[in-house]
Protein backbone atom coordinates (compact mmCIF):
# COMPACT_ATOMS: atom_id res chain seq x y z
CA UNK A 1 0.00 0.00 0.00
CA UNK A 2 1.46 3.30 -1.09
CA UNK A 3 0.95 5.33 2.06
CA UNK A 4 3.44 3.11 3.88
CA UNK A 5 6.13 3.45 1.22
CA UNK A 6 8.77 6.11 0.83
CA UNK A 7 8.83 8.57 -2.05
CA UNK A 8 11.79 6.85 -3.73
CA UNK A 9 9.78 3.66 -4.05
CA UNK A 10 6.83 5.52 -5.54
CA UNK A 11 9.01 7.02 -8.28
CA UNK A 12 10.15 3.54 -9.30
CA UNK A 13 6.66 2.13 -9.70
CA UNK A 14 5.79 0.49 -12.99
CA UNK A 15 3.17 2.21 -15.11
CA UNK A 16 0.65 -0.56 -15.75
CA UNK A 17 -0.95 1.33 -18.64
CA UNK A 18 1.95 0.63 -21.01
CA UNK A 19 1.29 -2.56 -23.03
CA UNK A 20 3.90 -5.31 -23.22
CA UNK A 21 5.31 -6.77 -26.42
CA UNK A 22 6.93 -10.22 -26.53
CA UNK A 23 9.18 -11.93 -29.05
CA UNK A 24 10.80 -15.36 -28.76
CA UNK A 25 14.36 -14.73 -29.93
CA UNK A 26 15.63 -18.30 -29.88
CA UNK A 27 15.79 -21.47 -27.81
CA UNK A 28 18.56 -23.22 -25.92
CA UNK A 29 19.19 -26.61 -24.36
CA UNK A 30 19.36 -26.35 -20.58
CA UNK A 31 19.93 -29.59 -18.66
CA UNK A 32 18.23 -31.60 -21.37
CA UNK A 33 15.22 -29.29 -21.65
CA UNK A 34 14.37 -26.71 -24.26
CA UNK A 35 14.29 -23.21 -22.81
CA UNK A 36 12.96 -20.26 -24.80
CA UNK A 37 14.62 -16.86 -24.69
CA UNK A 38 11.86 -14.23 -24.76
CA UNK A 39 12.42 -10.52 -25.20
CA UNK A 40 9.80 -8.38 -23.47
CA UNK A 41 9.37 -4.67 -24.15
CA UNK A 42 7.22 -2.17 -22.28
CA UNK A 43 5.98 -0.07 -25.18
CA UNK A 44 6.04 3.70 -24.90
CA UNK A 45 8.94 3.64 -22.43
CA UNK A 46 12.49 4.33 -23.58
CA UNK A 47 15.07 1.58 -23.01
CA UNK A 48 12.62 -0.69 -21.21
CA UNK A 49 13.39 -4.17 -22.56
CA UNK A 50 14.36 -7.33 -20.72
CA UNK A 51 14.70 -11.07 -21.32
CA UNK A 52 12.92 -13.95 -19.62
CA UNK A 53 13.60 -17.67 -19.99
CA UNK A 54 10.66 -20.06 -20.09
CA UNK A 55 10.18 -23.76 -20.63
CA UNK A 56 7.09 -25.33 -22.14
CA UNK A 57 6.07 -26.46 -18.65
CA UNK A 58 5.98 -22.81 -17.52
CA UNK A 59 3.39 -22.08 -20.19
CA UNK A 60 1.37 -25.11 -19.07
CA UNK A 61 1.40 -23.89 -15.45
CA UNK A 62 0.18 -20.47 -16.56
CA UNK A 63 -2.58 -22.05 -18.66
CA UNK A 64 -3.72 -24.12 -15.66
CA UNK A 65 -3.85 -21.06 -13.38
CA UNK A 66 -5.80 -19.08 -15.98
CA UNK A 67 -8.18 -22.00 -16.43
CA UNK A 68 -9.05 -21.79 -12.73
CA UNK A 69 -10.14 -18.21 -13.29
CA UNK A 70 -12.18 -19.09 -16.36
CA UNK A 71 -12.42 -22.38 -18.30
CA UNK A 72 -12.94 -20.28 -21.44
CA UNK A 73 -9.34 -19.03 -21.39
CA UNK A 74 -7.25 -21.01 -23.84
CA UNK A 75 -3.69 -20.11 -24.82
CA UNK A 76 -3.80 -22.77 -27.55
CA UNK A 77 -0.51 -24.36 -26.50
CA UNK A 78 1.19 -26.89 -28.79
CA UNK A 79 0.70 -30.61 -27.99
CA UNK A 80 2.61 -32.11 -25.08
CA UNK A 81 4.01 -34.88 -27.24
CA UNK A 82 6.77 -32.50 -28.30
CA UNK A 83 8.17 -32.22 -24.77
CA UNK A 84 11.74 -33.50 -24.53
CA UNK A 85 12.11 -33.85 -28.28
CA UNK A 86 15.23 -31.94 -29.28
CA UNK A 87 14.70 -32.29 -33.03
CA UNK A 88 15.36 -28.81 -34.40
CA UNK A 89 12.37 -28.82 -36.73
CA UNK A 90 9.96 -29.76 -33.95
CA UNK A 91 11.54 -27.20 -31.60
CA UNK A 92 10.94 -24.48 -34.19
CA UNK A 93 7.34 -25.59 -34.68
CA UNK A 94 6.76 -25.41 -30.95
CA UNK A 95 8.50 -22.02 -30.77
CA UNK A 96 6.16 -20.62 -33.43
CA UNK A 97 3.15 -22.01 -31.57
CA UNK A 98 4.33 -20.51 -28.27
CA UNK A 99 4.88 -17.17 -29.99
CA UNK A 100 1.24 -17.32 -31.05
CA UNK A 101 0.29 -18.00 -27.41
CA UNK A 102 2.31 -14.98 -26.29
CA UNK A 103 0.56 -12.84 -28.89
CA UNK A 104 -2.77 -14.00 -27.48
CA UNK A 105 -1.70 -12.92 -23.99
CA UNK A 106 -0.60 -9.40 -24.88
CA UNK A 107 -3.28 -8.66 -27.49
CA UNK A 108 -6.22 -9.72 -25.34
CA UNK A 109 -7.07 -6.79 -23.06
CA UNK A 110 -8.29 -8.91 -20.15
CA UNK A 111 -5.34 -11.29 -20.26
CA UNK A 112 -2.74 -8.57 -20.77
CA UNK A 113 -4.03 -6.76 -17.68
CA UNK A 114 -4.16 -9.78 -15.39
CA UNK A 115 -1.60 -10.22 -12.64
CA UNK A 116 -0.97 -13.81 -13.69
CA UNK A 117 0.14 -12.81 -17.18
CA UNK A 118 2.03 -9.72 -15.99
CA UNK A 119 3.95 -11.72 -13.39
CA UNK A 120 4.74 -14.33 -16.07
CA UNK A 121 6.18 -11.72 -18.43
CA UNK A 122 7.60 -9.30 -15.84
CA UNK A 123 8.34 -11.34 -12.70
CA UNK A 124 10.57 -8.65 -11.21
CA UNK A 125 7.73 -6.12 -11.07
CA UNK A 126 4.69 -8.28 -10.34
CA UNK A 127 5.52 -11.64 -8.78
CA UNK A 128 5.86 -10.35 -5.22
CA UNK A 129 2.63 -8.40 -5.53
CA UNK A 130 0.82 -11.61 -6.49
CA UNK A 131 1.98 -13.22 -3.25
CA UNK A 132 1.32 -10.22 -1.04
CA UNK A 133 -1.71 -10.09 1.21
CA UNK A 134 -3.05 -6.61 1.89
CA UNK A 135 -5.48 -7.73 4.57
CA UNK A 136 -3.36 -6.43 7.46
CA UNK A 137 -2.50 -3.18 5.70
CA UNK A 138 -6.12 -2.40 4.87
CA UNK A 139 -7.06 -3.37 8.40
CA UNK A 140 -4.62 -0.75 9.71
CA UNK A 141 -6.41 1.95 7.72
CA UNK A 142 -9.76 0.91 9.20
CA UNK A 143 -8.36 0.53 12.71
CA UNK A 144 -10.36 2.58 15.17
CA UNK A 145 -13.27 2.95 12.77
CA UNK A 146 -16.49 2.61 14.76
CA UNK A 147 -18.69 1.83 11.80
CA UNK A 148 -16.93 -0.88 9.81
CA UNK A 149 -14.60 -3.81 10.29
CA UNK A 150 -12.75 -5.90 7.75
CA UNK A 151 -14.15 -9.39 7.23
CA UNK A 152 -12.10 -11.26 4.62
CA UNK A 153 -10.07 -10.87 1.44
CA UNK A 154 -11.74 -11.91 -1.81
CA UNK A 155 -10.22 -13.37 -4.99
CA UNK A 156 -9.28 -10.83 -7.65
CA UNK A 157 -12.34 -9.25 -9.26
CA UNK A 158 -12.24 -7.59 -12.67
CA UNK A 159 -9.32 -6.74 -14.92
CA UNK A 160 -7.67 -3.85 -13.12
CA UNK A 161 -4.13 -4.56 -11.99
CA UNK A 162 -3.24 -4.24 -8.30
CA UNK A 163 -6.86 -3.97 -7.24
CA UNK A 164 -7.91 -6.09 -4.28
CA UNK A 165 -11.40 -6.69 -2.98
CA UNK A 166 -12.55 -7.33 0.57
CA UNK A 167 -15.74 -7.96 2.47
CA UNK A 168 -16.38 -5.62 5.39
CA UNK A 169 -19.13 -5.65 7.99
CA UNK A 170 -21.22 -2.76 9.21
CA UNK A 171 -21.02 -2.96 13.00
CA UNK A 172 -24.57 -1.68 13.44
CA UNK A 173 -25.86 -4.56 11.35
CA UNK A 174 -23.29 -7.42 11.26
CA UNK A 175 -25.44 -9.41 8.84
CA UNK A 176 -24.95 -6.73 6.21
CA UNK A 177 -21.73 -7.20 4.25
CA UNK A 178 -20.19 -4.48 2.11
CA UNK A 179 -17.74 -4.76 -0.77
CA UNK A 180 -14.52 -2.82 -0.25
CA UNK A 181 -12.24 -2.18 -3.23
CA UNK A 182 -8.59 -1.31 -2.66
CA UNK A 183 -6.25 -0.04 -5.38
CA UNK A 184 -2.58 0.66 -4.86
CA UNK A 185 -1.36 4.07 -5.99
CA UNK A 186 0.71 3.93 -9.15
CA UNK A 187 3.34 6.20 -10.71
CA UNK A 188 0.75 8.93 -11.29
CA UNK A 189 0.40 9.57 -7.55
CA UNK A 190 0.20 13.34 -7.07
CA UNK A 191 -0.69 13.77 -3.40
CA UNK A 192 1.96 13.90 -0.72
CA UNK A 193 1.89 10.98 1.68
CA UNK A 194 0.57 13.01 4.63
CA UNK A 195 -2.21 14.45 2.47
CA UNK A 196 -3.08 10.99 1.22
CA UNK A 197 -3.31 9.64 4.77
CA UNK A 198 -5.64 12.53 5.68
CA UNK A 199 -7.87 11.78 2.69
CA UNK A 200 -8.03 8.07 3.54
CA UNK A 201 -8.90 8.81 7.16
CA UNK A 202 -11.65 11.15 6.02
CA UNK A 203 -13.08 8.51 3.70
CA UNK A 204 -12.99 5.84 6.40
CA UNK A 205 -14.89 8.14 8.77
CA UNK A 206 -17.85 8.54 6.42
CA UNK A 207 -21.01 7.15 8.00
CA UNK A 208 -23.41 5.29 5.75
CA UNK A 209 -26.91 6.58 6.36
The CATH architecture of the largest domain would be 2-Layer Sandwich
Number of helices: 8
Query: What is the mean predicted local confidence, pLDDT?
Result: 79
Contiguous uncertain segments of 5+ residues: 1-11
Under CATH at level 1, the class of the largest domain stands as Alpha Beta
Strand residue content: 25-35%
CATH topology of the largest domain: PX Domain
Structural class: alpha+beta
H/E element order = HEEEHHHHHHEEEH
Shape: elongated
For the report, how would you describe the main beta sheet? 3 strands, antiparallel
Question: What is the helix fraction of residues, given as a range?
Answer: 25-40%
What can you see in these coordinates?
This protein has 209 residues and is an alpha+beta fold. It folds into 2 domains: 16-121, Phox-like domain (PX Domain, 2-Layer Sandwich), CATH 3.30.1520.10; 132-207, Phosphorylase Kinase, domain 1, CATH 3.30.200. It is built from 8 helices and 6 strands, in the order αβββααααααβββα. It has helices spanning 7-11, 56-69, 88-107, 109-112, 115-121, 123-131, 135-142, 193-204; strands at 20-30, 33-42, 49-55, 148-154, 163-170, 173-183. A 3-stranded antiparallel β-sheet has the order 1-2-3. Helix 5 (115-121) packs across helix 6. The longest helix is centred in the middle third of the chain and has 20 residues, at 88-107. The protein is elongated. The two termini are 28 Å apart. It is found in: Cytoplasm.
Amino acid sequence: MSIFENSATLKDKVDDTHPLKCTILNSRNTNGYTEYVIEVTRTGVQDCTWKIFKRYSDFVKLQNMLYKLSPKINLDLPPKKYIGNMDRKLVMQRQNALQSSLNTMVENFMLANSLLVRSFLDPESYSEYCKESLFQKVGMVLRGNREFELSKELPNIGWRLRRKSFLSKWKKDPKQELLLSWTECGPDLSLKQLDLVTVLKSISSIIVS
